[in-house]
Structure formats: C-alpha cells, structure tokens
Design a protein that fits this description.
The structure is a homotetramer. By secondary structure, the first copy, chain A, is mainly alpha-helical. Chain A has 9 helices and 2 strands; from the N terminus they run ββααααααααα. The termini of chain A are far apart. Chains in contact: A-B, C-D. Chain B binds a DNA duplex through residues 1-3, 13-16, 19, 40-42, 50-54, 56-58, 61-62. Chains A, B, C, D: InterPro entries: Homeodomain-like_sf, HTH-type_TetR-like_transc_reg, HTH_TetR, Tet_transcr_reg_TetR-rel_C_sf, TetR_C_Proteobacteria.
Chain lengths: 220, 220, 220, 220
DNA sequence: TATGAATGAGCATTCATTCAT
DNA sequence: AATGAATGAATGCTCATTCAT
C-alpha cells in the first residue's frame, strides 16, 4: 500500500486519503447533478467506485457528506477567484483595461460549472443548513469582497481611484458584474456568449469608474 | 358540510376555486419551508386542509403543483415590485430622493418572505425545471428591468439622467441594489437592519447617479 | 324522454335501459383490455360516456359490475355456439363434412375476441369468484356440451354413430377441438391461420369418427 | 442473526441463495392465492419472512418477481409431467394399461395445486405478458407434447400404434385428458373424485386407442 | 477497512367509493 | 337520475442507514 507524508509529517496510508477525496469529489458531482434531496448515497458511491457503507465509514452522514463536499468546492472556487483578483496588484498604466481584464476573468470563473453548482446548491439548502451558508459565503463572496477591497484601497492610496470606503466599492463592483450576468444567463440555464460576457464586464467597469475614478488630475 | 357562510352572508360553494387556491397557497408555503424534494404532498394537503387525493384532483402532479405555485408567487411578487417602480412616474424635484425611496421599498419587497422563497426555490430547481426559470425570470426580474428601464428612459428624455441605454442602466441599478443585499443578508439567512438596508439603498443610488446623472446643467 | 316496451309489457324509460347496457358493454370492453384488478371504474365510466357515480347508481359495485358484464358476455358467446351446433340438426348425407363444418365454425367462435376475453377473465378470477365460474361454465361449456350431446345422440339413434354415452362423446369432441387450438394459439396470444384452423378441425373430426363412427354397415 | 445452524450442523450464510429462493416460493404462493394484480409485494415479503426492500434487492420489480416465480413453477411442474411420460418408455405387454396408468398420473399432476395455479396465472396475464406465455408454454405444454410424441413414435415403430403423425397423436391425447378434466373440475374450482378422474383417463385412452391403435395383427 | 445484504420509514400516486347538489 | 368533488386506504418503489463478515 502506497503512503504519503501528510502535512503534519506523519505517514498516512494513501489509499485512505485517496478514497476520501474520491468520495468528496463524487459527492459534489452528484449533488451538482441532482440537488441535495434527489441525490442518493448509492449513486455517490457508484460515482466514487466504492461500496455504500464505505461512504458512511468515511463521512458519517448524508448531511456531513454534503457539508464537506460543499466546503471543498467553495475553497476551490475561491482559489480561482482570488488568483484573478490578485492580478490587480500590478495594474499597469491603463487602469480601465486592468479592471476589465479582471472583470472578464471573474465572470468566466463565476460561470463555470463548479461555481454555478456551488451557488445553486448553497442557495437551495439555505433553509436546511443556514450555518453552511455562513461558512461558504465567508470563504467565497465575503473573502472575495475583502480581497478586492484590498486592491481598491491600494488604488485609492495611489490616487488612481478617489478616496472612500473600499469595501463598499468592492461590493458594488462585484454586484455590477454578477448581477447582470445572472440575469442574462437566466440563473445559469442559458449560455452567454463571450461577446456578451465582455459587454457585461465593460459596462460594469465603465459604471464603476464613473463613480469611483479619481477626479481627472489637473482639473482646476 | 360543503358550503360555508361567507362573510357576505351568502352561501358559497366550498369546493371550487376556493380549494384550488388554498392548495396552491399551501403548496407554496410548504415548498418554501422544505424545498421541492423534501416537501411531501401529504404535508401540503394538511396545510391546505384537504385530503391528499384532492390535491391530485386539482393539480395532477407534484411537479404541476410546484409550477403553478411558483408562478402564482412570481406574479404576486412582481405586482408588488411594479407598484414600487411605478412611483418613479412622478419623481418630484429631488431625483435622488425619489430613487432612494424606490430603492428602499424595492429592497423591502425583495427581502420579504415570499420573494426570498421564490428566489430560493427557482434557483434550487434550476437544473430540474429550466423552462420554469425562464418563465419566472420573464415575469419577474426581466419584467422589472423593463419597467425600470421605461422610467429611466423618461428621465433621460427629460434631461435628468444623461442619455444612454436605459436597459443597461436599469440592469445595473437593480444589480447595485440586490447584489449587496444578498451578500449582507447571507442569501436571506440573516436579518438586515432597516438602517443597513437604507445604507445599501443610498449607496446604490449614489453610485448610480454618479454614473448616470446628467452633467450639471449650466456647465459650459 | 323516449321509452320502450320491455318484455314484461311495462313501459320503461329508454334512457335508463340504454345507459345500463352501455355501462355493461363498456365494462366488458375494459375488463377484457386490462383484466379485473387493473381495470378502474373511471375508465369504464369514460368508455360508457357517463360519470363515475352513474356506474355505481346502476351497478352497486365493481364486483357486481364484473359479474353482470361477464354473464352478459357469456350469454352472447353461447348464443353463437349454439347456433353452430344447431346446424347438426340436418347433417345431410356426408356426416364427416357436416362435422367438419361445425367444428371449423366453432373454432372460429372460440377464437373470437369476446370468447377469448371471457375465458381469460373467468379463468383469471377463478379464485376470487368461484361461483361465477360455476355460472359461466353452466351457461357456456356445459350447456354447449349438452347441446352437442343431443345432436350426437340423435346421430346414434339414426345409426350413423355407434351407440354409447353421447355426453362423453360430446365432451371429447369438444376437447379435441379446443385443446389443440389453445395450444397452437398459445392461449390466444398468437394468430392461427385459417388453414391451420381447418387442419385442427379435420384432425379432430377424423379422430372422433374413428372412435365413434358406427361400424361400416355391410361388414360381415 | 445472519447465520443459522443447518440440519447438517454447519453454519450456513442465511443471506444468499436461501433468501432468493424463499422469496420466489413466497411469490408464487401469494400470486396463486390472489392473482397478479391483487397481490401486494408486502404480502410476499411477509410470506417469505423478509423485509419489503429485500424483495426488491433480489428481484427488481413486481413484474420481474412474477416472471421468475412463474418460470420456476413451470419448470417444477414440467419435471413432474416428464417423469410421468417417461414411464411409457417401457410400456410392458398391456399397452392400454400402460397408457391408462400414464393418463391417470398425468391428470393427478395437472390437478395439483401448483399446476392449476400456474395455468390460472399465465392465462390471466396473457394480455399483459404475452412473451411469458410463450416461455411457459414452451417449457410445459409444448415440451410435454414433444416428449409424449417421442414415446408414441416409438410405439408406432414397434407396430403397436398405427403409423401417422405422432405430434398430432400426442396433441390429441393430451387434449382428451385435460379438456374433460378442466370441464369437470370447473376450471379447478371443484374437487374431482379419484373415481371420476380414472373414468376420464380410461375414456381418453379408449378413444385414443380406437383412433390410433394398429389394426389387429393377423387381419388379412 | 471494505462490503454484500437487509431493513424501517416514507412518498408519490391510484382507486373504489361516497356526498351534496 | 346524473354528476363534480372529495376522501380513506392501499400499493409499488426508494432511500438513508445499519449489521455481520
């Protein structure tokens, strides 16, 4: 049996880790396909290539399974989004272009299969797992807002955006991006063309800059 | 006992419209409480005060039941929203104030129990009933966007907003309102104070006006 | 409302009689199509073009409905069969030909839709309505055996068949006809060609005559 | 408790073949008692001493359950019948006696509980499972006819029956046995005495021999 | 640890039957 | 007499979960 060295430094049997991960992946796939209530543990076990009781051995419960699968997906989605925001660290000379670039990439991430499924699943189970929402939002939207706010704050400091509450600016920029996108994609049930996505990104950035760009220097 | 004495004092057949509506109302209540998959027809029947087969007599299917209940709720929500937008028809002298008023009222509607539940349910079942999403979005968000666009177009014509695409303006104003609100209410799992709601409304309108207000008249 | 004179001589409202008959016909059609357990009263009502409670008004019960429908069908089938046997009253010179003719016609009747359905339904419900079997058999198979026995007795008396128990002869002739036919038609699930039907009839009569024909007159 | 001590004294896994067979047996018992449509899976499960889902685990469907139960019963009945026919392989000196013996034994088998139930069930469901009829007939009546034809062919070859089509002879002999028996037992709803059964057997063989016995040897 | 097998609880749906009109 | 509406009682089937190996 192969083994890997876990972050903690202890040897851990690899088969175990692999299997747990396989189950979580399978779970997210199935939950995304059917929704929580309609998913059955048997299908998840099949997808993961293990027997049903093995799923229970590793993850106790359908509910626990759901929580872990969702959290894993949230982390993955967030990593992608943070990478996009990070690009604003070196915006170059053309601020508008940099923002549009970030906006477009972010929309692409948000329209991805996993991102959509995550949103749909958390939204759907809001009533049953309110604390899960809290966790997921904390690790995704809120965290993303903070990261973006950091960048915008720097841009204010460097005089490229006017001073003001960067959290609010970030919140609104995100809203200007995701709101229209959700509407146009009909909550993800309709394909939005690249061109239209670009339009949304450009319009969002345009409005954002009108509202938040520093007054043109040199204006009397 | 098949007839009841209505408040008006006349005998009214209990059976007909009455019961169908009661079932639809009960269905929405239960679906909102449990989600589609977790709701059982028996509970809906209980909530409506009828026997289970009566539900089937009137509405064929669990699916049909869902569709009709959702559509009815969508229409109700939309009526409220349209009434709010309609107020912009006579904005008075203070445009900002008028917009803030509308914005605040709209947020109130969107945070209402029914509105939230509607959003949650449609989102959750997006995969299973894509055409339902289309219908509901058509009757709510899109319709609302159009109505708002109408108002904004008028305001452009009368020179109070700068010229431009009113549909995009409406789309963005709505995004600036609902996006931050969803975030702060954690998709509706957390209560947002009146004060905070007002803040969101004010911030949205502020950003909107910066981007869309007509250049100050008298500027050369 | 139109009225007819019933056999008893009293005036009877026609609508009533018509409707009852329509229901019985519809019932047999549906029972034949689905079997007893799988038939639902609603489908019978639809087939008869009346409302469900009307069926109950006329026939009390699903069970009663079944019994009456079956009995009516049994009488109809029997009338056909008796007519066929009756032809033996004047057998003409060629006894073999007369028997083959009767045999073929009888097979045709027994393979008819109604006859088959009747057999299938009574057989199927033998456990649930044993007395119904008794009644139906009495009005069909047994009665047919008696009628045939009558004819055969006459043929014995006139010296064209050898003396013996005509009831047994009739019973065996019928068995030689229906047994092979049921086998070849796979209990009615397979079409039997006219030619094959003729073969069965001829073979049955041939065997029957070998066993029952009077010794050739004039043999020393 | 998952293991029982078998009569042999060894521990035997309770779960496997054991249970499947118990379910099939129980299914046939219940189907025979109530008919297909009136049988409910719960009752079968009770009869088998297992939980309802166990039935589904092993046999998928009510329909599948029916098919397998019927086929098993068909095989069992056929084995009995073939054993009876096999006795004709050594007919001894007295052909008539040998045939009568076989005939009587065959009637006993055909009047047995299982045989009757099998006939009733297949007949009843002819419309719903036509292919099942085909299978069952193939494994029972047709197979039996062939086996009997084999024996009769040998008897022809050895000069004890006159030459001719042995398949037809077999078909007719079987018809002469089962036809009258069904009639007299009222499709199995009435007990037929041993004496009467013997009479039917004797009459059938008598008629058969008249028609099929070789001409008395020594006749010029 | 992994699993084949078993099960208690539940759910959508159907149907025979009955009221009240 | 005929019917629209309503319902109590089943029934087939699924699923999360647990044993015993």
């Amino acid at each position: 049996m192969t083994a890997v060295t876990a972050p903690s430094g202890r040897k851990v049997p690899r088969g175990r880790i692999d299997k747990r991960q396989a189950i979580l992946d399978a779970a997210f796939t199935v939950f995304a396909r059917r929704g929580y209530g309609q998913s059955c543990v048997q299908e998840i076990a099949n997808e993961a290539g293990v027997a049903k009781p093995t799923v229970y051995n590793h993850l106790t419960d359908k509910e626990t399974l759901f929580r872990h699968a969702i959290e894993a997906a949230a982390d993955a989605v967030m990593a992608e989004n943070l990478a996009v925001v990070e690009r604003l660290r070196e915006p170059g000379d053309d601020l508008r272009a940099a923002l549009e670039d970030m906006a477009y990439r972010m929309l692409q991430v948000c329209c991805g299969e996993r991102s959509r499924a995550l949103r749909r699943l958390t939204y759907a189970q809001a009533a049953d797992f309110p604390d899960l929402i809290e966790t997921v939002q904390g690790r995704t939207a809120i965290r993303l807002g903070e990261a973006l706010a950091d960048r915008l704050a720097r841009l204010s400091l460097s005089g490229r955006l006017r001073p003001g509450d960067p959290a609010q600016a970030a919140e609104q920029l995100l809203a200007l991006l995701t709101g229209p996108m959700e509407m146009r994609s009909r909550l993800g049930t309709r394909k939005v063309s690249t061109a239209e996505t670009r339009t949304v990104a450009r319009a969002a950035v345009d409005t954002f800059l009108r509202a938040y760009e520093a007054a043109a220097p040199g204006r009397p």
